Amino acid sequence: KMDDDDDDIPQLSSHTLAALQEFYLEQQQREGMKTSQGFNQYSIGSIEEDWQLSQFWYSDETASCLANEAVVAAGKGGRIACVSAPSVYQKLKEQDGKDFSVCILEYDRRFSVYGEEFIFYDYNHPLNLPENLLPHSFDIVIADPPYLSEECLQKTAETIRYLTKGKILLCTGAIMEEQAAKHLGVKICKFIPKHSRNLANEFRCYVNYASGLD
């Protein structure tokens, strides 16, 4: 028998309600910061990481270090491709006006806000790329495959080899050292990248050229 009163409707506890209101307030404040004057749409955090897509942003210091390395490695007027490495792309865009060009290959379509520099990329189809993305047209490719599996690395490596004129900067787990050498001929660097949130797996950088990361 249906009861006429609302006693059975679940109510949020005052503690849960307060926590929820605080969450929404923080969200509104973040949105307010984004729309307020002076917000840089390219800054890290302007698009929040999505763990379901295996996204983990670098710390500000790491993203800056990798971006600066890419600029030096690319050289004056160089072209840089960021494959599944959006926080490095964002740091590169903060250096607006510098003498280099950059594009981002990324599965997450939220990054399409960056216009023509955004190229939708699914590592399962490594060479499914736009016709205007010519082979060996980037001075350096910096890549961070989304998953720590040989299959993911192998497929991403196909993309990297297609894009690069030669230089490769790979960021992935320490456990992938052997596979990274096998598929891309890269060696581990002394520089240890950090993320804005601590990851369970040890993370490292790999290069195939004389870099500033040692």
TrEMBL record:
It catalyses: L-lysyl-[protein] + 3 S-adenosyl-L-methionine = N(6),N(6),N(6)-trimethyl-L-lysyl-[protein] + 3 S-adenosyl-L-homocysteine + 3 H(+). Pfam families: N6-adenineMlase. It comes from Scopus umbretta (Hammerkop). Keywords: Cytoplasm, Methyltransferase, Transferase. One of its GO terms (biological process) is methylation. Coiled coil: none annotated. It is found in: Cytoplasm. InterPro entries: DNA_methylase_N6_adenine_CS (IPR002052), Efm5/EEF1AKMT1 (IPR019369), Mlase_EEF1AKMT1/ZCCHC4 (IPR041370), SAM-dependent_MTases_sf (IPR029063). This is EFMT1 methyltransferase. GO terms for molecular function: nucleic acid binding; protein-lysine N-methyltransferase activity. Signal peptide: none annotated. One of its GO terms (cellular component) is cytoplasm. HAMAP family: Methyltr_EFM5 (MF_03187).
